[in-house]
Amino acid sequence: MTESDRATSTVYTSGEHCPMCAAAHAWVGLGRIVYVSSADQLGGWLSELGLARPPVNTMPINDIAPGVPVDGPVPDLAERVKTLHLRLHSSH
Fold first, then answer.
1. Pick from 89, 9, 92, 91: which is nearest to 42 by CA?
2. CA distance 22 to 33
3. Which of helix, strand or coil describes residue 34?
4. pLDDT, position 90
5. How many other C-beta atoms lie within 10 A of the C-beta of residue 48?
6. If we measure between CA atoms, which residue out of 81, 67, 90 comes closest to residue 16?
């Protein structure tokens, strides 16, 4: 992708970028991020199940990449992602 194409692109993802991915996103000059569920939501869902939080501190994307436009979480879809996580972890 050209620099211009990267800057005007939109990345759609089910979960908020981790700090490493947010940094990479900013370093390569990608545009907007739209995510369904936040890293904080994931941590809460794991806590509900008595599981450890993710091994990386959860941080909002804009704490790492302040210039990246971000939209999320998406409440209706986040509930669907929560259901998937509950199903995955309750089967173990």
1. 89
2. 9
3. strand
4. 84
5. 12
6. 81
> pTM of whole model > 0.90?
no
Q: Structure tokens of 51? A: 């599981």
Tokens 């809460």 belong to 44
Which range marks the domain in which residue 18 is found? 3-90
Sheet harboring 70-71: ordered strands across? 10-15, 32-37, 70-71
Query: Which tokens go with 5?
Result: 């194409």
Give me the residues paired with residue 10 across strands. Answer: 32
Average pLDDT over the chain, rounded to whole?
A: 93
CB 31 within 8 A of CB 8: yes
